[in-house]
Amino acid sequence: MSFIAYLRLGRINLTGFLVILPPIIYAVAGGNFWSLTALELALFGLLYQYNGFVLNDYWDRELDRKDNKYWRPLVNGSVSEARVKWLIVILSIMCIAIALPLANSIGSIIALILAVVCGTLYNYTKARTCFSFIFSACAFSFFVMFPYTINSKIDDIIVLLMLYTFFHEVYQIGYSGNYIDIHDSKNFIKLLGTKVSNNRLLISAATKLFGYATKLTTFIIGLLFWWVAIPSNLKIFFISVYCILYTIIFYVVQRQLISQDINRSYMSKNIVIVELLSFYAIMFMLYPHVGTIEYLLFIIFPPLWFFLWNPLLWGKSYILSPKV
Q1: What confidence tens digit (pLDDT) does each residue in 22-69 have?
Q2: Are 9 and 52 in contact (CB under 8 A)?
Q3: pTM > 0.85
Q4: Beta bridge partners of 197
Q5: Which stretch of DSSP H or E encloses residue 73?
Q6: How far apart are CA 246 and CA 3, in angstroms?
Q7: How far apart are CA 231 and CA 199, in angstroms?
């Protein structure tokens, strides 16, 4: 047992985005990014994501053992199942204790409850159904809604941000997550006809349709956001840059959907590229609604967080490559 093992269990290196996102969403709704409330939201985001990874590894521990994911602490025995159970309880209590006093409206209370419930259902149903990714997409959508509704009513901006988040997560978990864990028994893209033959990944036409459709829907929702939320004199510039970002995203998605390579490292790199570019598309969407300093911090913080934590957890050779 070691402190590093617990940091690996919660994948602390991958939590940076959910640390900075809640304060930014709060600022978009008119809140003060530098306030105590924003700091509490950042801590809530950290604990929520960290606990989600711990829950994920706990529910998947038997599958991970079968797949020989030796780097997972519950697989290699560096943390005990009994201690992880207590850790989940403690982290859950801490999340609720931080977030509940911030929930000052019916909208924020509903968003908080649904974010917690859907997140729990995702982890509980992962080994039981091929459709658990829907719960994950809902959880992150309501997670985005929560800080916004603390300071503002539900409007077009937050609805479009929630829809963008939902379809982004449907792709990332429904396709990419199943793509990298193709041997899992409850695998959605296997249900769509994708299979492994002679150590090659054969992606079905239905899987490709699902991948293209969800990513195209995400792109269109982003365009609608620009149309609704951006001043007319800035629309052409922002939409042009957004389209350039998504041109690169669609190129990588195309590469994912035609690849037959089941090398986990190669798969991880493609997933991370799509995740990061989609993340920067979200950041770019929010630029007109926050201050310049806050926006620069929004850009810099997640990759800096990752580059600081990753070599500490996995060594210098993994500075650019996450263990997923």
Answers
A1: 999 999 998 999 999 999 999 999 999 999 999 888 888 887 787 777
A2: no
A3: yes
A4: 200
A5: helix 73-76
A6: 39
A7: 52
